[in-house]
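User: Can you write out an input/output pair for a complex, sequences first and structure second?

Assistant: Here is one pair. Inputs:
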Amino acid sequence: MADINVNTVNKYFGDVHVIKDISLDIKSQSFTVLVGPSGCGKSTMLRMIAGLEDINSGTISIDGQVVNDLPPKQRNIAMVFQSYALYPHMTVFDNMAFGLKLEKRSKDEINERVNEAARILQIEDYLLRKPKQLSGGQRQRVAIGRAITRKPKVFLFDEPLSNLDAALRVQMRVELAKLHNELDATMIYVTHDQTEAMTLADDIVVLDTGIVSQKGSPLELYDKPNNMFVGGFIGSPKMNFMPSKILSKSADSTEVDIMGMSKISVSKLSASSSEGDAVTLGIRPEHLVVNGDADGSWESKVFVVEKLGDVSYLYLEKDGEPLVAETEGHSEIKVGDTVKVGFPAGRCQLFDSSGQAFK
Amino acid sequence: MTKLYDKIFKYGLQIIVIIFCVFPFYYAVMTSLEGSAAVFVPNFFPTEINPKNYIYLLFEHNFPNTILNSLFVAIVTVSISITISYFAAWSLSRVNFQGRSMFLFVILAISMFPQIAVLTGMYQLFLNFKEFYFNIFDLRVKGITSLLWLCFTYTMFNIPFTVWVLTTFMKGVPKEIEEAAIVDGASSFLILRKIFLPIMTPAIFTTAIMAMIAVWNEFLFALTFTATNSDRTITVGIALINGTVEYEVPWGSIMAASVIVTVPLVIITLLLQGRIMSGLTAGSIKG
């Protein structure tokens, strides 16, 4: 019930053009994650939706109503900040009740809503404590609770988990996903952590220096990145990029030569490329075939082995180009060994010289 | 052994610092308790305990009156300057307007002016103020003119300092707290009252105490702008305590007066010590 439409929005900080003509449609009750490296404009985008930053041009509408000139409190939103931003002098209860008191709700209603939120977030026992008596995870729950009590149509999260330790982050991530199912509200979530984006999102919006690089479901972005930026950003460890050259083009595939060492035929096409063009071949570490049969393969020396238990990552190098390959957790491969890596053609992506993906 | 040396070194230094700071005050207390003759014998421990200096000051002299004057000036000055600076600090730290840094720079520059540089001009203004004031109010409240003028000049000299300090403190309050309140639906004024004020309380107390001490100890303006014994402030009052005969400096009384005016400050500071700077925003943001 609260679609958000961002229409050709621009934002300048002084002379710096931070948001460039961004248009976005965010569906009601969806969980949309804005992701990108620092400085890509994702937090600014969120703050503009919240009403904490002005827009230089374009429109933002929530639920069909243009909200450009509305103050945050009239936008029916709630925001959770990275640094929690709890009111340090108030108890947990008062922190969560503050917005409701400003809306002049009755005492009973405030009690009921705060207790309800506290129950959902399991912080009932701390209602009378001050923020400084709470741990990081508890504080973050209070911050989320403060947002829930007001029953907004839209929740905005600005990197809410990045101050928590790894274990807590995973736990809170699951709880946020649960919360989204329970609340049926539109949620927009900003993060630089691609794992959070992949796990939480219905839709991921990848931002790169003020423009939308790609928008789509997590698997769409993982399987079919629009460009090298998205390919490199989504997935961990990063996608491997190998300099290659187009040998020939046919009706449904492009044959490329990877660093002069193996030839493979990838069933991807780009109208703007021609034979002899330099392209980049992208392949994820988990898709490289180690010591097995694959379309194109070569031998490479292992420099570092990272054993994570379930999988191991091999850091390889060939002619100065680094390459990461995934293999099974209890692999016998040691540093200094030579392994055969293969490129399964079906898993390879091709990017032209401007970074655009072959379709 | 090294531990022992460490301890001796650590505590030794502390004792030296304490003696250096506290000894003059101790000597003042001791002198104030001695009779007029004993004052001139150098000693570390009082040879007699005699409250006559205090009795003289409190009951036979108009010294209590000077304390009241100083209290009046200090309270009025500090409340006005803190109120003004609190709002100024908010706009200087939070509101974006043209020339903000210039404004802060000017404030800093003003606070560098020595009092003596503006003294003559101030005195001329004072005469005009007095005339204006006399024309408006009737004679019965005339006595307060000098004190009001003192409040005005002290406020003038205090505000750059208090604005500067409070601005620095307010800049330290995370912007997110304010933004959270904005999203919660609070107006600027409400944020100032319900969010910033409680968070800033320790900072405000600290600043107020510093301003109060400055006003309490001010001498030059107080001497220049007060003409009669009834509107002296304590610093001038102490300076003008005279002995029973000419050329006698009544050290005993002067020291007793010093003790009387210092003790309230020490007590206030000790009482508020806990509030001063006690975790400005503890628990609000990460950590």
